[in-house]
């Protein structure tokens, strides 16, 4: 069951980050669209929350200082996100 939850969080993160990419592209050509900007900011918050939840339970998603490393889900814990 824990593995299922891990996969669900990764899927949610991928979906939210996909929406962020699309909104980012849209805002590049429509910078005055307040509703799109509000949606972008809402999805940024969702992405942060999902990422924080994932990392607190399963370890860091990113290296090079972009993710905190914490015990007990640190660098030597597996599987890595790309191994799931």
TrEMBL record:
Query: Where in the numbering of this chain does the Protein CotJB domain appear?
Result: 8-83
User: Which keywords does this Swiss-Prot/TrEMBL entry list?
Assistant: Capsid protein, Virion
Origin: domain of life:
Bacteria
The name on file for this protein is Spore coat protein CotJB
Q: Which organism is this protein's natural source?
A: Paenactinomyces guangxiensis
Q: What is the lineage of its organism?
A: Bacteria, Bacillati, Bacillota, Bacilli, Bacillales
């Amino acid at each position: 069951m824990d593995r299922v939850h891990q996969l669900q969080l990764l899927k949610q993160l991928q979906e939210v980050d996909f929406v962020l990419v699309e909104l980012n592209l849209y805002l590049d050509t429509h910078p005055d669209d307040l509703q799109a900007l509000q949606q972008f900011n809402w999805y940024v918050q969702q992405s942060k929350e999902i990422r924080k939840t994932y990392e607190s339970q399963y370890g860091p998603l990113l290296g090079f200082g972009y993710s905190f490393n914490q015990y007990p889900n640190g660098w030597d814990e597996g599987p890595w996100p790309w191994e799931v």
